[in-house]
Amino acid sequence: MLLRSALPHLEPTVTATDEMLEKIAAASNGDVRSAYNTLEVAAAGSPGGAIQDQALTDALGRKVLLYDKTGEEHYNVISALHKSVRSSDPDAALYWLARMLEAGEDRMYIARRVVRMAIEDIGLADPRALEQCIAMQQAVHFLGIPEGDLALAQAVIYLAVAPKSDAGYRALGDVSREVREGRAEPVPMQLRNAPTKSMKPGVTAKAISTPMHLKTQSTKCSACPIRSPDAAGITRPERGVEKRIKERLEELRARKKATPPTAC
Description:
Elements: H1 2-6, H2 18-27, H3 32-44, H4 53-62, H5 72-86, H6 90-102, H7 107-122, H8 128-143, H9 147-161, H10 167-181, H11 242-258
């Protein structure tokens, strides 16, 4: 029996009855790693040289929570948390979060992943999501365990119920592809720095006010070298706050079309 052969290699070395080992094997559902983990926890809780009934009961109660924090199950559980948030399922998200917390996962690792979720999956649909998650990271770092765990739970619930959008994620990808594949355009004159007084007045543009309090650059030449503004950049935002952002984008692009830039 694998569990019995493992007993001499435990620290501290303990003994166990066949009945105890059979309980551990049955509870592991064929998962050898889980069985070994349960055996180790039971041994650690039994300083008398033999596994005690209460230590075994406690270990069996935790057996589903144990996983190798550097192995496959570690990545499976964090993936389950991320996908539960992405699918707007706060109950599932809290369950997987609790699995990680009870297994002793590094809180700052979880915090980093939650911040990533706010950027990748919520984005401009709710810009406050990132603010909430950075506040959560600070609270986790400041408070520690267990109070900081409440901040993690609060952030996970917030993200799970928030509107989802990857518009910013896709926009950066589109523009980055344009930069890689397109020609490296020079910086337009009205955007360049004026380090000396010898530069002629008017070469660099100053912001001007419009009746709508919109700050714009001079329209002598385009500020964006992208060959086709409609092919890359922020497009089709329609979720949450993005609805208002979309209206603003449409307004700004309409103004640009009304006053087309000339070549520098």
